[in-house]
Design brief:
Among the domains are: 68 residues; 184 residues, Neuraminidase (6 Propeller). The radius of gyration is 29 Å and the shape is globular. Helices cover 19% and strands 43% of the residues. By secondary structure, the protein is an alpha+beta fold.
Length: 402
């Protein structure tokens, strides 16, 4: 801003000097030609000053964008709010909890090749920042650990029941349950030192541009890391949060609706009656019954700009024998509407449980434009002898990724 003012003032001074010169020597034809040249020069200077001012404005805006973009983050989209079982480094590698190997921590390329086991820990809330992978370790009561992306230098950072871990270059944000089993929000350095309580009796919901969003069953609040101010932005129980330059996104439990809230407080309904929401890059992903047949479960992708909705995963409507994988000839809709008419032989004679299982998908995880989900596929039972797997969504029935 100061540079633009200086350029403008210098241009005005130069214009005044040139105008004064023309006024003094305008008696000869030669001088008239000279003044004509100087008038053209004045016009050029005015235009140049405008261009330079515009360029400076553009540079300032670029610097503002780069200033935030330069803050390195260990998470993508709303993946942590979805449990953080799958993460990415932005360079073609995925870090995940393996369904095929006892939930151990693995990494692989986006297409599922080059799978490598990093350690035997059972991770959640996976963040990747630089060469480090951060996570809550189920095997140690959800304490926070980190390990190098090559599997070396594994170390424990924070002891306790730690959840909702968000890692930034300026430190880690997470909540820990206290002696009363109430979550408390903390910040610590990336090596786990200087752990400080910053918000009481809340969980971490999301992080964006130096602001931390926290929630409990009653309210959603915004904590400013610079000023320390804590403000209520929504009354009610919320879940599946994400924040970006346009606002904060969340599922309002009592309303059974997914909202976008602008930073001026305006609410916009994006979806309703769905489940397992995740938001990233202008798109909302969620699970719901097929809107046309109600026979099978689908994963939808909603473009929040155009409000166009597409199916990116369409699961089978059939129930399968949980032991053999054979189709039982019973659809989800039939099971829901005619439960009392199902043949008694399809119920376990020990505990009375139905022996059928249907294809399922859990939270979507968005990694570099691809969508993955922990779920159940018939293909996994056929190929791997187990139902649970990580699904790569492909616009149809999905494929087993792990």
């Amino acid at each position: 801003m100061l540079n633009r003012k200086i350029i403008f003032l210098l241009s005005i001074i130069l214009i005044f000097i040139l105008l004064s010169s023309c006024g003094k020597i305008s008696r000869t034809n030669d001088v008239k030609t000279n003044c004509s040249y100087k008038e053209n020069t004045i016009d050029m200077l005015i235009e140049e000053s405008k261009v330079q001012s515009q360029n400076l404005q553009s540079v300032d805006n670029d610097n503002i964008d780069k200033k935030y973009d330069s803050e390195k983050l260990g998470f993508m989209g709303g993946n942590i709010s979805a449990g953080g079982l799958i993460s990415g480094d932005g360079n073609g590698w995925i870090y995940y909890r393996s369904e095929n190997d006892n939930w151990c921590l693995y990494k692989a390329k986006l297409d599922g090749t080059q799978k490598n086991k990093l350690c035997d820990d059972i991770p959640s809330c996976i963040n990747v920042l630089g060469d480090w992978v951060y996570y809550s370790n189920y095997k140690d009561g959800f304490s926070i650990y980190r390990i190098k992306s090559d599997g070396s230098e594994r170390e424990k950072l924070v002891d306790g029941y730690c959840r909702n871990l968000y890692v930034t270059e300026n430190g880690m944000y997470f909540d820990i349950r206290d002696e009363n089993n109430s979550p408390q929000v903390y910040h610590a350095k990336l090596d786990g030192t200087d752990k400080n309580l910053i918000v009481q009796d809340m969980r971490v919901a999301a992080y964006y541009d130096k602001s931390l969003y926290c929630y409990n069953t009653k309210t959603l609040k915004k904590y400013d890391n610079v000023t320390g101010e804590l403000d209520i932005i929504y009354d009610g129980y919320t879940h599946n949060h994400y924040a970006d330059i346009n606002g904060i996104y969340f599922w309002a439990v009592d309303d059974n609706k997914y909202y976008k809230m602008d930073y001026d407080g305006k609410l916009t309904e994006l979806a309703k009656n769905g489940d397992s929401f995740n938001y990233a890059d202008g798109k909302l992903y969620y699970i719901a019954l097929n809107a046309d047949s109600f026979d099978n479960y689908c994963m939808y992708c909603l473009d929040t700009k155009t409000m166009e909705k597409s199916i990116i995963l369409s699961l089978s409507e059939q129930y399968f024998d949980i032991y053999t994988g054979e189709a039982l000839g019973i659809t989800i809709k039939y099971f829901r509407e005619n439960y009392d008419k199902i043949d008694a032989s399809l119920f376990d004679h020990y505990d009375g449980a139905f022996i059928g299982i249907n294809e399922q998908a859990g939270y979507p995880y968005i990694i570099e434009g691809r969508v993955y989900s922990r779920g159940v596929l018939k293909e996994s039972k056929t190929k791997n002898g187990r139902w649970d797997c990580i699904i790569l969504c492909n616009g149809s029935g999905g494929t087993v990724w792990d």
